[in-house]
Amino acid sequence: MSKPYSGIPIDEKRTWVVPRWLKEAFVAFALVAVLAVGISKGVQHFGGAGERARSAVEADELAGGPATPFKLPARGGGQI
User: Fold this and answer.
1) How confident is the model at residue 77 (pLDDT cuts 50, 70, 90)?
2) What DSSP line would sit under 6-46, residue for residue?
3) CB–CB of 2/10 below 8 Å?
4) What SS3 state is found at 56?
5) What is the pTM of this model?
6) Would you say 48 and 42 are in contact if contact means Cβ atoms under 8 Å apart?
7) What is the per-residue pLDDT across 29-74, written as a single tens digit (0 to 9) for each?
8) Which residues pair with 8 in a beta bridge?
9) Phi–psi pair at 8, nearest 5 degrees
10) Measured on CA atoms in the order 17, 20, 23, 25, is the torsion positive or negative?
11) How far is CA 59 from each of CA 49, 53, 68, rounded to the nearest angstrom?
């Protein structure tokens, strides 16, 4: 058995210690990812306000009419 470190005996087993650069790289990646998602959501919410308003006005101007006929398969067979 080797020398104890801080009173804890070491049984020739070494644990892997995560290098500091790897921890810092992970934190930096996480911050960049959170920032990218935040910017993307901000652009979606605020940047598209004019486009959403234009499409809403265009939808109001559409002529109303009956839907085109269509058929759906029924659960027990056949069509509805």
Assistant:
1) confident
2) TTB---S--PPPPPHHHHHHHHHHHHHHHHHHHHHHHIIII
3) yes
4) helix
5) 0.44
6) no
7) 999 999 999 999 888 877 766 777 777 777 677 777 888 899 899 9
8) 5
9) -105, 120
10) negative
11) 15, 10, 18
Residue whose tokens read 């500091």: 20
1 contacts: CB under 8 Å, gap ≥ 6: 9, 10, 11, 12
Q: What is the pLDDT of residue 13?
A: 66
Q: Which amino acid is at 47?
A: G
Q: For the chain, give the number of residues.
A: 80
Residue 22's alpha-carbon distances to 26, 27, 70, in angstroms, are: 6, 9, 58
What phi and psi values does residue 79 have, to the nearest 5 degrees? -140, 155
Q: Give the per-residue pLDDT at 12.
A: 63
Q: Is the model more confident about 26 or about 3?
A: 26
CA distance 26 to 56: 43
